[in-house]
Amino acid sequence: MHDWVMWPVSLAGRAYASLAEVRADPPAWPELHLELLFDLLSDSPAFEVKTSGSTGTPKPLLVSKTAAAVSARATIKHLGVPIGTRLLLALDPQPIGGRMVMVRALATGMDLEACHAQALPEPPPGNYAMTSLVPRQVQALLDDSPETLRRMGQILVGGAPVDDALAQRLRGWPHPVWHTFAMTETLSHVALRRLDLGESEFNALPGCRYSLDEEGCLVIEAPWVEGLVVTRDLAHLVSESSFTWRGRADLAIISGGLKILPEPLEAEIRAQLGEHPLAITSVPDATWGEAVVLVSEAPLDISSLALADQRHRPRFHLVHALPLTEAGKLDRVALQALVRTHPHLPRASYD
């Protein structure tokens, strides 16, 4: 047994003293959840995950279980989650976000409960101390089952940007709602901001520090990660322990000499057109170099868009479904390829 696990472990309200006991009479969870749980509790010193693949091909990454436990304990301590309370796994357990929910429970003496990873989670009865969700799950719960969201305790929202409309709906929520800044390479989050309090700056977990490289991308130092993690995330550094996120450098669209970041433009458009599934990408353009394209699953009237910079006005492209990665994130590489195979797009005015 590895010393990072706090035996006995508590799973669905039952204590287990060994992996053999868990295997003999496991909780009634989905098969994939159990397979990954067994792997975490095995004698192997590491587990394998894949990077999200939202901006490229997913890459396998071997994660030290001991390092993951250090990250997990830092989260539990920083957020003041009482030992022995319940954590809910409502995410896909394969990416790092879902796997780290398991690690937090196993490494800190929490009771772990799980439900199917779906857009509208349906957890077992009772209250939870903390739950990790992606933005679309939070949106669905606010729309269709706010009472379920209330019993999930503190909420960690990650895996995708949180737009202004969702952030506004979470202002004043009765439990802390934390937007996480995280990536596979940092073994879950290294910074948090309180959405229920309207915070805009991400603040470091204890021991984490930030700097910027020559392109203005965030560089991360974390106690549980060897060396520095150089990201492709553009940021404004407030201090070595806080920053605001601007967007992904590798997604920037260069149109007519302007550098346009898709995520902020998407947020600006959603604020005017509503919460439709949409995304920004680009196509080659003889005049502009690249032309901005708004892609949506629903027909949208963009003629009245009042953008802060009208030079960012997009063309429009309708698709049946936005492509997603295995982790459920928008697959921007596939999206760009999809749009660029259909060159005759409806055009919006550039006047």
Number of domains: 2
SSE order, as H and E? EEHHEEHEHEEHHEHEEEEEEEEEHEEEH
Which range does the strand content fall in?
25-35%
Radius of gyration (Å): 21 Å
Largest sheet: 13 strands, mixed
Q: Can you tell me the CATH topology of the largest domain? A: Rossmann fold
Describe the structure in your own words:
This protein has about 350 residues and is an alpha/beta fold. It has two domains: about 10-250, ANL, N-terminal domain (Rossmann fold, 3-Layer(aba) Sandwich); about 250-340, 2-Layer Sandwich (GMP Synthetase, Chain A, domain 3), CATH 3.30.300. The protein has nine helices and 20 strands. It has helices spanning about 20-25, 30-40, 65-80, 95-110, 135-145, 145-150, 165-170, 260-275, 330-340, and strands at about 10, 15, 45-50, 60-65, 85-90, 110-115, 130-135, 155, 175-185, 190-195, 200-205, 210, 215-220, 230-240, 240-250, 255, 260, 280-285, 290-295, 315-320. The strands form four sheets. The chain has a 13-stranded mixed sheet with strand order 2-1-6-5-7-8-9-10-11-15-14-13-12. Strands 18-19-20 form a three-stranded mixed sheet. β8 (about 155), α7 and β9 form a beta-alpha-beta unit.
